Amino acid sequence: MQNLKEMIENPSNNSLIKKMGIQILDYSAENATATMPVEGNTQPFGILHGGASAVLAETIGSACATIHAHKLGKIAVGTELSISHLHSVTSGTVTAQAKSLHTGRTSAVYLIEIYNEQQILTAHATLRCALLESRN
Fold first, then answer.
1. I want to staple 88 with a disulfide (CB 3.0 to 4.6 A). Which of 47, 52, 80, 131 is the partner?
2. Three-class SS state of 98
3. CA–CA separation, 121 vs 61, rounded Å?
4. Do residues 8 and 27 make contact, with C-beta atoms less than 8 angstroms apart?
5. Catalytic one of 6, 9, 30, 58
6. Across residues 112-120, what is the average pLDDT?
7. What is the architecture of the domain spanning 4-133?
8. 77 has which bridge partners?
9. Among positive and negative, which fits the CA dihedral 61, 62, 63, 64?
């Protein structure tokens, strides 16, 4: 398996994480924080694309799940993402905060909240990951 720290902090240049400008600021198996610019991630009406918020939520939750899975000698794969969009964002940067709801032997579940620069909750999501045996 690629170095875990390197994989989380420096994804490859052709990854979706890089293309969307996502920056993972801090992370552990229990909590993580990441940012993403609104510019370049909008839909035709000029507001943050709901799919972009979903990518941010899955990215930050998956970072946590990957760390938890690594401790068990496993890998984490997303199996379910549920997201609700609460407030539109047209500029600036959004910040996602992930918090562990469950970290078990076969699954992990995270609550992710996304805020705009005024600290208004713009979306919240739940991510479930399956923890699988590594094929390496």
1. 47
2. strand
3. 17
4. yes
5. 58
6. 98
7. Roll (3.10)
8. 130
9. positive
